[in-house]
Amino acid sequence: MEIPPAGRAARSADRREAILAAALDEFSERGFEAARLDDVARRASIAKGTIYLYFRDKETLFQELLRTMLTPIIGGFEALGQADVPAKQLAEHMRDVFVKEVFETRRKDVIRLMISEGRRFPKLAEFYYREVLSRIFEALRAILKRGAERGEVPEQLVEFPQLMAAPGLVAIVWTGLFADLAPLDVRRMMQAHIDILFAPRSLS
């Protein structure tokens, strides 16, 4: 019996999702360089050739993994960048989103992969910067610019939105290396950072 078009589309989407899930496991366990498409196929319970129906090569697969997992979060950050509310309130909301949607999920594994592999694979680093970091920093810069105009943050902070994102990277690196030795309360650390950045400033 012939499968209806809707059924074929659903099966194709499920297979693509299975490949991406298997790729995340394989890349996380072995790193980008050592990961093999044969092993991704084995994890996904498909033939290796099936992968090429969806992704041109290992690099394309990794890029699509980044895009699929992180784009929804980035879109939310970009929307926050346009919200006309106090900068500290936005920063606290972004903290909550990061903890819930990134740090407490497998998304942190993707970011950790980029931290560890990006220097050796500049094309992947460029892709990550273009598709992820540059968009996040643009949203942060918009928030900080409005905050500086209102006197909520120092004007120098607008030039360095990386300072806003730094605690998230610290959390991912720290827990990857030292979670068993010195567990980190990520939410409290990020709140302390926000309180420092947005502390009332003397007008003198």
End-to-end Cα distance, whole Å, is 80 Å
* Share of helix, binned: over 70%
Overall pLDDT confidence = 92
Largest sheet: none
Strand coverage percent: under 5%
The count of strands amounts to: 0
Can you write the helix and strand succession as a string? Answer: HHHHHHHHHH
Q: Helix count? A: 10
Notes on the protein architecture:
The chain has 204 residues and is mainly α. The protein has 2 domains: 1-55, Arc Repressor Mutant, subunit A, CATH 1.10.10.60; 59-197, Tetracycline Repressor, domain 2 (Orthogonal Bundle), CATH 1.10.357. 76% of the residues lie in helices and 0% in strands. It is built from 10 helices and no strands. The chain has helices at 5-34, 37-44, 48-51, 58-81, 87-103, 107-117, 122-149, 156-159, 162-178, 186-197. Helix 9 packs antiparallel against helix 10. 23% of the residues are buried.
In a few lines, what is going on in this structure?
This protein is mainly alpha-helical.
List keywords for this structure.
10 helices, Tetracycline Repressor, domain 2, 0% strand, Arc Repressor Mutant, subunit A, mainly alpha, 204 residues
Write the layout of secondary structure elements.
Blueprint: H1 5-34, H2 37-44, H3 48-51, H4 58-81, H5 87-103, H6 107-117, H7 122-149, H8 156-159, H9 162-178, H10 186-197
Helix pairs in contact: 1-2, 1-4, 1-6, 4-5, 4-7, 5-7, 5-9, 5-10, 6-9, 9-10
